[in-house]
Amino acid sequence: MSSIVYGHFTDELDLLDAVKELQEKGIKIADVRTPFPVHGLDTALNLRRSRLPKVAFIAGAVGGTLGMLFQIWVFTVGWPLNIGGKPQLAIPSFIPVAFELTVLFAAFAMGIAFLLRSNLGPGQIPDILDEDVTNDHFQVILSEKNNQVTEPELIEALKAAGALDVKHVNSTK
Amino acid sequence: MEKQNIQEPVPFQFNQKIKKWLLIAAGIGLLALLWGILITQAPASRIWANLWMNALMFLFLGLGALFFWTVNSLGESTWQINFQRVLEAMALTIPFAGLFLILAFPGMGSIFEWTHTEHHDEILSEKSAYLNIPFWMVRFAIYFIAWSFFAFYLRKISVKNDFEPRETYLKKTRSTSGWFMVFFAVSSSMAAWDWLMSIDAHWFSTLYGWYIFSGMFVSALSVIIIITVAFKKFNILPNVNREHLHDLGKFLFGFSIFWAYLWISQFLLIWYANIPEETIYYITRKEHFNDLFYLNVGINFLFPFLALMTRNAKRQTTYLAIIALVVLLGHYLDLYLAIFPGAVGHEAASIGLLEIGLPFFYLAAFLTIFFVVFGKAKPVPQNHPYLIESSSYENI
Known about the structure:
The complex is a heterodimer.
Chain A: E1 2-9, H1 12-24, E2 31-33, H2 41-44, H3 52-78, H4 91-117, E3 138-143, H5 151-160, E4 164-171
Antiparallel strand pairs in A: 1-3, 1-4, 2-3
Helix pairs in contact in A: 3-4
Chain B: H1 16-39, H2 44-74, H3 84-91, H4 94-103, H5 108-111, H6 122-126, H7 133-163, H8 168-195, H9 208-233, H10 242-273, H11 276-288, H12 290-307, H13 311-315, H14 317-343, H15 353-375, H16 387-392
């Protein structure tokens, strides 16, 4: 059983300053939760870049290829129809459908991958420590487990960095 | 944050070295023109079409930059402030583009078939209410007076703000940009009909104006990227960083796809409907310019699509500038395919010293005007309320 300490900020610039201040003191930050993306936070926390673009590329390539191959199969082998005397293998007319399938596959794969990766899938209970974070507060979370210092010291450090509503909870995670 | 420290730019100097290189480039262009006239003895239509093509590309760079500038002002965006003076100086080349187009006016007869009313062409005489020389000239004058007015007025406000900053300038810039956008929406399409689509006057396409606009915007973006990268290297724009180039790269990537979208939309519908009066446009290009026809799609869509897809590609400044240069050449080819098959015909059209050399003259003229205008004001807008934000933003 380890405990978690968190504090709130009401301004994104204060948050960025506090993150840097805490890191200079050698305190490791477990997570930061914000109601909207904050410029510069990812680099400040040294987060790895998201792999979502790769998912999008692979899914898009699969969708485009499948869309093209399916139409080629349908119009030449599966059910050849004479449409206005056009050649059976009418590649230009396959492009819109292949394009749409590229977008469809990429969009669905990105949505599903994002939901799975951030534990937001159906039936999952979001792990929200404080409801204010869904409105206008920026939350810095410190974990006792990651740091060599004790809980009161973490609370002190957060308060010194200008955090409001510093609270601690016991976590089983 | 350290990024918020705004660095003082190295003042730009239009020095003898640059002037010498520009003179050499202009000389190459003129020599190519003389070579084409005297040694190749190119037919008149090919000479005039070359002058027309280069003057139009010259215009596209300025007009595209003016569009980019106003669209950012209209959206009250902040990121472009650091390199806005590049857009301003490019936009002020518009009146000179008008002069270069006027230089090609004596060749109208060989470029535009509809100017010959004596042949009694049934389709062309039906179109003569719109396609006649006096009305065409009036439209030409209206476009250039209005575009130049907007460019000069916006530039005036921007430079005034350097010396006596006023809050109202921001609002004025925004509302003027709005009026420009309304005018541009109509005039860019109509100019494309007047100056390019009417070369093949029997043929028409309803999305042609947009197609030309997308090519224009991509060409202008390429030049904006190349100039910005070069100025960053020489510390003339020290506050331009990877974030700005990343976003410019995204624009180049996105609008190359937009161009391809319009290209395929135009081609697909005409190919599918298979109506002779429409397919003639593509038949002339496919039969006699087949390699260039496919190269056009490859260089303007597949190449930037694959080369600019990753994040790192857009953030490597030199790499981005090289891609931009290739795309710019690609859009030269696109313009060539729009003009030459109709204006010159496949027997006389070719790509020789004339086509390769003459653009250097227009490049030198463009850069001379650009450098003179750029040197007249500070390289970065002073006292601009958005300057700090422009220097410290980051892509997520």
